[in-house]
Amino acid sequence: MTSTDRQNPDPGAQAPADTKARLLESAGRIFAAKGFRRATGKEICQDAGANMAAINYHFGSKDSLYTTVLIEAHSRLMARDELAATMSLNVPPQERLAVFLNRLIRRLFTQSAGSWPIRVVVREMADPTPAFRTLVDKEILPKSHILRRTVAELMDLPVEHEAALRTTISIIAQVISLFQNRAAFEQIFPELDWSEAAMEPVRDHILTFSLAGAEAVAAKHRA
Question: What's the chain's average pLDDT?
């Protein structure tokens, strides 16, 4: 890269920050559609209207760009600060869980089926790349620890109790599975409404199922 490239990696951009944002959005869409391995830096730059030096200039490499996309995608689904604030509400744990599920499911329902944050995270979890470790460390584990504290309180069990951990997995798995396989479920269960109007029944079902399951598991272990 020449000194001129470093000073102005994308002469057509209004500002470097604008180029970086466009690259992130283009990369998100292309990685979601094709996966990390099949996507190329060239097509990302072309889609973003940037020159070929732009990815290295703003992100260091295609690998680093992909890692940034994953972290951004997961944060858009539920930011850590937002989750921490929800789980710090001065209400019973059942109500905190209800607020969490309401916000997450509403966000997933109101985003289009082709929304790249959902698709890129689902694709990565189904076929992990080396970037998954960074996503786990920076986004998934911190959020998991926040959520599992509320689940453990709900179950009146220690936060590291196996039952609390498994219940946390079960709650999240319901949401992930629903949206990961939504297109298939629409064909398998055509009797159900899968439009945005069904958001509240879906949320209420997952909440009811989760609370009942948590109580049943907790009762077994307390006994």
Answer: 89
- Is residue 111 left, alpha or beta, with left meaning phi > 0 and alpha meaning psi from -120 to 50? beta
Say how far apart CA 166 and CA 54 lie, in whole Å.
44
Which one-letter amino acid corresponds to residue 193? D
Residue 95 pLDDT grade (very low, low, confident, very high; cuts 50, 70, 90): very high
The tens digit of pLDDT for each residue in 169-204 reads 999 999 988 888 888 999 999 999 888 888 899 999
> Residue 222 has what pLDDT?
78
Sequence letter at residue 187: Q
- Can you list the domains of the chain with their CATH numbers? 3-60 (1.10.10.60), 78-222 (1.10.357.10)
Ordered alpha helix ranges (H), the chain: 3-7, 16-38, 41-48, 54-59, 62-77, 80-86, 93-110, 116-126, 132-135, 141-155, 162-180, 182-188, 199-222
CA distance linking residue 54 with residue 44, whole number of Å: 10
Closest CA to 10 of 22, 21, 19, 2: 19
